[in-house]
Specification:
- This protein is mainly α and about 100 residues long.
- The chain starts with 8 loop residues before the first helix and ends with a helix.
- It has a domain of about 70 residues: Orthogonal Bundle (434 Repressor (Amino-terminal Domain)), CATH 1.10.260.
- It is about 60% helix and about 0% strand.
């Protein structure tokens, strides 16, 4: 989390949902809960079960850690990369990170 930022599951969930242009009803359908449940999660009235939180993370393209406020990084999924492509991408990221310092 950013410095001084207070963790708020509901705000994180709402921001992720809105970034995906999903309504509360659409998100609820995708994870198997009601629109009312999504509303309660976003307003910190109710917490989702671990299984529902996992489904939320998958649908929203993030990790449980990010959703729970334990990490603030961006998640990029690049399926079907060969080992060589993955190694090249990791090297690029490592060098880019080094150059920014």
């Amino acid at each position: 989390m950013g410095s001084g930022q207070v963790f708020d599951f509901g705000l994180r969930l709402r921001k992720l949902r809105e970034n995906k242009h999903l309504s509360q009803e659409e998100l609820g359908k995708r994870v198997g809960v009601t629109k009312g449940s999504i509303y309660r999660y976003e307003n910190n009235v109710q917490s989702p079960s671990l299984e529902t939180a996992r489904k939320l993370a998958v649908v929203l393209g993030t990790t449980l850690d990010n959703l729970a406020g334990l990490e603030d990084g961006v998640v990029i999924r690049l399926p079907n990369l060969s080992e060589a492509e993955e190694a090249a991408l990791r090297e690029f990221i490592r060098r880019s990170h080094f150059l920014r310092r």
